[in-house]
Amino acid sequence: MTIPSATYRLQFRNGMTFDRAIALIPHLKSLSISHLYASPIFTATEGSTHGYDVTDANEIDPAIGGRAGFDRLTAALKQAGLGLILDIVPNHMAASVENTWWRDVLRHGRASAYAGHFDIDWSRKLTLPILGKPVAQALADGELRVVADEGGETSSLAYFDTHIPLSPQSTAHPGSTDAIEPLLTQQPWELLYWKEASENLSYRRFFEVTGLVGVCVEKPDVFQDSHRLILELVRSGAVQGLRIDHVDGLADPAGYLEQLRQAVGPQVHITVEKILGPSERIAPEWPVAGTTGYEFITALSHLFIDGQGIERLQADYQKADPVAADYGKGLREAKSRMVQRNFKGEVSRLVALAQSVVPGETDSELRTALHELLVAFPVYRTYGYRGGLGEQDRVILAQTVAKARTWLMGESALAVIERLILGDFHGNAAAEFRTRFQQLSGPVMAKALEDTLFYRYNRLIAANEVGGEPDHVEATAAGGIEAFHAAMRERLQTQPHGLTATSTHDTKRGEDARARLYALSERAEDWCLAVERWSQMNRDHVAQLPDGPAPEANIEWMLYQSLAGIWPVNFEQSALASLKDRFLAYTEKALREAKLRTDWAEPNEAYEQVVRAYAEWLVSPDNQGFVEDFDRVLQPFIAAGARNSLSQTLIKLTAPGVPDIYQGAEGVEDSLVDPDNRRTVDYAALAATHGGHSLAARKQELIRKGLALRARHRALFDEGDYRPIDVTGPGRDHVLAFARVHGEEQVLTIVPRLTAAAAGRHEGDALDIWKDTALVMPDSMSGPWQDLQSGRSFAPGSVKVSDLLQGQDVGLLVSPSLAVESQH
């Protein structure tokens, strides 16, 4: 298998074209990147900002340069010695008339050559939830009309700018509005008010996005049709790796990955976007290098969050909002909402399928059992298809059923569902139930946790990350270093060549904002007292609405933390203007995602307006007293955040896995959730920081040296062992040290952690704790050592942390053979 030494994620669109990417190749070379990791490049809907709404999987999007531009890019990459990894989207395509396959289905219905390409329930008409009102009202308001298509041989139904192909059997060109209603009855589709989609949809969608329709890629002919160009690009040598988007959405992930592996061969590096739950392992039979790295972010959060500080934050958060502070209850409520409302139609279909297999079970009992099972699921899904469940899945299902049983009066319906998931029943309906249940549990988890609870539970928002486990923070933070070592040893065993990410296009905030916010747990008392004071300072801007104060205390917690994450290092009044737009956009999204007093479907404008006004006041030049106090309080957190940032960067560069650098994250990455984290990177400004003393400059330099080392010693990092290094002395809990070892080649990583907390628990400066703190080096790793950053040498034996970290942020030591090489 081709193993990248380091990848660089680049978001195409939003101004990023193939030719602009070519211009960045010298920069990537200077970082020692081995592979450009491209967001989806295939033709997507017009104006797409992300490319996941593919309209033609066999065409490279002209909007970013088309095939000619792609060929120029791959030629330039090859000349520079870089490879290419493509992000591909097998689960879904755009449900848009721009998609020729979908357009053909709309015109011909079940008779279309592509009717089986999409995951559609053809026992009924294809539902199109595109109307802004009920269909009767749209007809009465004259919003539907028939228009001739280009060329005049066919016709479409026009709903404003949306044109839906009419069946060839339709009455041609009806001339009046009265004729449109009977015309609709002749179509293989039916129009719906968009709000009806959650209960009345005839096709599988991507999560709740009705504009994305599921693809039946498990069918061999559909696989071939949708992967024709992908396979051509791989076989031609233009592409060396593939990233599989939303693998959990597929009917048969294992079967798909096996088919893909057979088609592309053993050398292609394949990773899957897969969120692993607590204690969950990637299926060993999957022929992939690993995941895209969300669990690595989680491991870092557990390392840098202070367990004692979390207890203080929890106590104050509990006082501020007892309801929001109950994580377990909050998760149950969020998942219940998804099952009962947002995915009600999918649940109804499962009920009907179960009843067709076991007619004796009632609708209400099955629905209740499904609800409890989906709510209790601790992971995104299980992976049974034609065979039985694997051992890990059987354990997970048994535990989930036991938990669901505690909420149920009877067990009959639950037992039926358990047997259906296990594969005990035969026949098409049983197989379909099993597949659709597994395709539903993931969206329920994702929408409830990532897109609801993570905006409601604001104790420490740095822990509310994709793949994160806020409820596990206390236990793992208490274990700290040992828990991290255990996670990395497991990573070396289960996915040594998966991606190690710290920021992605889907993370809730950038890695450096997160690193700073971790520090809030270290000086929790200072932070909590400051929040209480700021709340009082700004209380005149809290409005009293009929349903309560706005913003409520929970939202204030979110706002102050969010602002802290993006606050400039060297504050000037002029910086407030640039902060404002980003901060207010995030505020609106956070309020709507929380789905408490407003949401996307039914925005509460009065509530949003007053919360927006409050947020705007926080960054107003007129709020001088607050702004100055906020900046003063933030200084130790900014300093600690910078240390955390450099520590997590070095860990990523040397830990098991392939380091992935998100675009622009070689500098400071303090973005908020998308679309903020997909904005255009100012590479000129990034280049200007090179060689300075700012965090961006120090981080870039660390990445350059770390990745250059990886590039020179591939076997050390691809095959090397991971060895924890013990630390003694008063600062032992504030240092993480580990070695990568391959024969005589040895690299030692030493990084500080929880240094802001140390300043509060020890006399003097935080760095005083390094006195008498040393690494306990095993005999096989006695040295001598050379620090790759400073060039200083360390004699054989123990290494004093005070000597190592004197005047620098982190330590990267190399063994004699590597030290000699680094001097040339």
Task: Supply database-style keywords.
824 residues; alpha/beta; TIM Barrel; Maltooligosyl trehalose synthase, domain 2; eight-stranded parallel β-sheet; six-stranded antiparallel β-sheet; 30 helices; 44% helix; 15% strand; Trehalose_TreY; (1->4)-alpha-D-glucan 1-alpha-D-glucosylmutase
Summarize this structure briefly.
With 824 residues, the chain is α/β, with parallel strands linked by helices.
Task: Provide an overview of this structure.
This protein is α/β, with parallel strands linked by helices. It has 5 domains: 161 residues, Glycosidases (TIM Barrel), CATH 3.20.20; 113 residues, 2-Layer Sandwich (Maltooligosyl trehalose synthase, domain 2), CATH 3.30.1590; 206 residues, no CATH class; 128 residues, no CATH class; 105 residues, Sandwich (Immunoglobulin-like), CATH 2.60.40. Helix content is 44%, strand content 15%. The protein has an 8-stranded parallel sheet. A 6-stranded antiparallel sheet has the order 21-23-24-29-26-27. A hairpin with a 2-residue loop joins strand 23 and strand 24. Helix 9 packs antiparallel against helix 18, helix 10 packs antiparallel against helix 17 and helix 20 runs antiparallel to helix 24.
